[in-house]
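TEACHING EXERCISE
Course module: macromolecular assemblies
Task: Read the component lines below, then compare them to the predicted structure of the full complex.
Student: A.B.
Group: 4
Components provided:
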Amino acid sequence: MIRFSICGAASYACGELLRLMVNHPETEVAYLADTFAAGRKIYEEHPALMGFYDQEILPLNEETLEQIVKDSDVVFTAVDAGTVCAIAEKVLAGGKKFIDFGADIRFRDAKTWEKWYGLQHPNHEMTKEAVYCIPEIQRDLAKGKSLIANPGCYPTASTLGLFPVLKENMVVENTIIIDAKSGFTGAGRRPAPNKLISEASNNFCAYSLGGGHRHTPEIEQNIAYITGKDLMQPETWQYINFQPHLTPQVRGIEVTIYATLNQEVTNEELYNLYQKYYQDEYFVHVFPASKPVQTKWTAGTNLCCITPTYDARTKRLVVSSVIDNIGKGAAGQAIQNMNLIFGLDETTGLKIAPMYP
Amino acid sequence: MIRFSICGAASYACGELLRLMVNHPETEVAYLADTFAAGRKIYEEHPALMGFYDQEILPLNEETLEQIVKDSDVVFTAVDAGTVCAIAEKVLAGGKKFIDFGADIRFRDAKTWEKWYGLQHPNHEMTKEAVYCIPEIQRDLAKGKSLIANPGCYPTASTLGLFPVLKENMVVENTIIIDAKSGFTGAGRRPAPNKLISEASNNFCAYSLGGGHRHTPEIEQNIAYITGKDLMQPETWQYINFQPHLTPQVRGIEVTIYATLNQEVTNEELYNLYQKYYQDEYFVHVFPASKPVQTKWTAGTNLCCITPTYDARTKRLVVSSVIDNIGKGAAGQAIQNMNLIFGLDETTGLKIAPMYP
Amino acid sequence: MIRFSICGAASYACGELLRLMVNHPETEVAYLADTFAAGRKIYEEHPALMGFYDQEILPLNEETLEQIVKDSDVVFTAVDAGTVCAIAEKVLAGGKKFIDFGADIRFRDAKTWEKWYGLQHPNHEMTKEAVYCIPEIQRDLAKGKSLIANPGCYPTASTLGLFPVLKENMVVENTIIIDAKSGFTGAGRRPAPNKLISEASNNFCAYSLGGGHRHTPEIEQNIAYITGKDLMQPETWQYINFQPHLTPQVRGIEVTIYATLNQEVTNEELYNLYQKYYQDEYFVHVFPASKPVQTKWTAGTNLCCITPTYDARTKRLVVSSVIDNIGKGAAGQAIQNMNLIFGLDETTGLKIAPMYP
Amino acid sequence: MIRFSICGAASYACGELLRLMVNHPETEVAYLADTFAAGRKIYEEHPALMGFYDQEILPLNEETLEQIVKDSDVVFTAVDAGTVCAIAEKVLAGGKKFIDFGADIRFRDAKTWEKWYGLQHPNHEMTKEAVYCIPEIQRDLAKGKSLIANPGCYPTASTLGLFPVLKENMVVENTIIIDAKSGFTGAGRRPAPNKLISEASNNFCAYSLGGGHRHTPEIEQNIAYITGKDLMQPETWQYINFQPHLTPQVRGIEVTIYATLNQEVTNEELYNLYQKYYQDEYFVHVFPASKPVQTKWTAGTNLCCITPTYDARTKRLVVSSVIDNIGKGAAGQAIQNMNLIFGLDETTGLKIAPMYP
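Instructor-supplied answer key:
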């Protein structure tokens, strides 16, 4: 049995991690910790976990962390930006595995992180060792490794939607525009008026309008990785437009990706190309142009569904890619990565069908 | 008093027209007709109109149409594609005014309509006389006219979002991409499984993926109009990507417009430019980049709210524009057009604040 | 013109009051005040009021209150329990009219308020002078008066649903059970996790389970009033079960009222009885048993829709009554009461059709 | 491996059955049949099952039924009222097990069914052999049996909420009122305007107002069973009020049960009583009065959550009981019953945590 602990257990993403772990046959929980909810039972934070877990949430300090490292095989973290490395250092020093939900160790080049997150990075060396891993793109990098940067939600949907055409060098540089829509679990649990059902329902809006969302450079780094650019030289990467929106729903991300192609293709050729890349992937389903994907086809799972199309009038690729933002976009992919680094079948505990309707 | 009649009264758009007319001090209803709901009381189709209207819905035939034309000053139509001109001919012959909610007379060049709607147009001459009118763009064309093509919902939000930068010649040709999201009233009242609350709620998806939505050429015609192209020569127009989506809400359209600009601007300059064009318009509100607009700011009204921004990294304009699809996108604009052609203040009956939350 | 001011302008109910006042031809705003939002523009609190009001929100203190009383004809308050009388005293001393949205002056007997609200009442004499007024039940009491307790949302829907059978002495004592459901605007704007769209949508629950909601004694007082009991002797009133729930929607209250009748009736007789009481009321619509009312038939309006039925097997009345909780349940009824005490037609500014769908 | 087949596979309930079976380690699908969707792939009806099942839906006729019986160990049916027995006869004749989702064999006395369903029952003997089984109430009746009537959704939530107090003889006869609320999956997949997201969202209403819903006698039969009445003598049963409503959500039933008790109790005593009955039940969670249950605590699972309370003022029990209507209310309980009759652990395949948020 793999014993896991969570730092930041009160977040939606970690509630989902616990929910999914109920079905994982090879794991058991060691400790649950959280800065804010310490002292409460885990089911007081996540009432739907009543009957499945009854741990008390530990505070997150030197002492509890020592205990956590000692008694866990793997530690998951969902903590504030800038505070990850201090935890990771101890986990690695204890010889245990570490998977982070945040962005602290997602950029090979810590300076890119510093620029977009407005903080000084505490450990530039660690970012070079950390493995950023969307398994369908780069699973070989992660096998046997201990320090995993679990990808962001928008970057996961976007990168999987772009991978085949980027890999085949079909995309004209600097033409990529990604219009993204997310449910409100992506905005977290901290209450604010704009997230109240009264104001959020029957409402749709953009945010971070005109650029500036922190997932922009993460997607750009992924594009650079796939197209063979040097990840330590961000000045060589191409720029994209990444524009997020909030859709009045709980879960689900849809990204519509636009890019000019350097060759003419048919919808059928695109479908076949994407199938070539993904047909052996358990978690990626490709659909023909006549079947635009729906976020609900992924609800509660680690699935990504993609419909690639081509608009011959404008010579642009138009791809719709959907995931559950706290599934494949967070907890699901974290378990997939855990399975990967522990040598388990990647699908262990994740073969579940989406809740529909 | 202006006596109005409606052909197609059972549609959501015409339910909204009736709802708004309750507050219009200068109109009264003459007849309500509909092919499918004939014989029922109007409040059986639109239960919320109970107590406000108690007309019986007439069938739509030679005889009733004669009666309608005789007793009405203006006739609104929301009927099947291809069936508008036959009604319009009679209304005009009777010396009355005519406002159509559909696309039959929206294209100056009937061949463009034929190409996208897959039907033979019954009256090529009529499309040349009809006035397509978004009042904020082209009100002078409509004054005193009798034959009005009320614009589509997506084209209204898109065109108002593009008008200032197009008029100022700031947009690089063939770079416009419009990512649109609509609530389900835009999909009409005809029941289908994908519109059921069970399947539609908590769900988001694209439709007409990769091009093909019929509002595409309407927006292209509007761009051609603003940039001074010949509307009878569609081969001279630029192509756009127009990609619609369904968002799990009742009302509201948001369009995010991307376009490469031929000059660098600041967000503040853009805001000032849009204000210059719209500050005297009662129904258009412009917001600074820090305030992305929300669909709910327009619910139940004839308002259009716009936030224009510029992404200096990619040199692209990113505009978010929102309307109520059955308000400014249909019934509200139809009343605004009616006010215009009858010489009333355009805002008559339309000075209502959005229902929020 | 009636000049009105609001204390507590940042609440949902007062946002709705301002929204409705846009259409009121006989009023104009004097001042808007709020303890928490002072210094902000009103459209920063209620973004949908952009373009309709641009007042700065005043703090609520001695000085501003003096100014408000001086320059207003009527003052509306939506403030914390226990703080109403201090404001009311000044308004009345200034010879102006006063309408309160809260419960401070709703109980003739201040001790009943003290028992349920757990506070000491600051002015027992004032509650005896104040007029609690659902116009359809007791409009004559309010004509020409200056101190109005605007009824609560649940009590309005419940009392209108019970009025005819109570007035006709058809209800067996102590058999009334009211199962109520409210949208989330009823829970206010203060953010809390359970009101977030992520947790509230697709969810339904009871609250204050098993008794204890503060609207219980208000409904009991209304029953006592209609059945001719002494409002100063609450020990003579009958008890009811009032059980509220939260339904995943923005606006709308539905109450299902159960009561044993002391005589057998048919659905048709009940319909006719309710029509007898309400047919001349502009804001109350009665429907036959085959047409259960829907909350959306009242959205954004001052309407109350009622379907009364009888279950012959159990000899119980079953009534469904719906309102918009911030319309007839708050702002709409407040305007109706304002019209009443100023001698205007009660429907002034309120003849609007519900937003449907 | 248990080989199962489904007649009526295109329904929501059977989509959920298939979804849950993905996680059941002891079953495999034999055939999927449906009168209406024959010839389509199962994932065309239930798109979220893409990648999990690829069977073609068979028509439902003599020939296919023979094949189904031959190759299946158990057959589930979700078919039109009145058509169940013809299928059941063949399944039983083939020596296989049979579980029905509908009401045809739920009433011991077929005449009760005839009265409420308005049809002639085709097989009065079969209803006497069939076992109606909510396992927590009557599992011993079902062990080893072959003909199972899977209970209705409302009756399951209601009966589990009443069981302890009925069993303890604490309820005064003829005082039970059940106010029920259901999400729209309970209303099925057949499209109708009132189920469209445009009309159903932000809306709440009663239906079958004043009595008449077919689940009424099913709950009355359950009460009769628990209190030891003769199920063949419905004239000896007590009457209840059962009043259903539609809440604007996808899944979830909440019932609020009111009943006069023949003794005074405290909330704590009630909690302890319910715990005594349910603490060993995996699928039933009891909560104290301060924690009203929420439908979302059961989403996608076979759980039932219950908060029992007592209102000392009115001497009435007030219980809130929640389930997922297509989980414990249909597919989940059907699997639980299948596990039971095949001698498996009842929880096999059903130990899953609810999707929250």
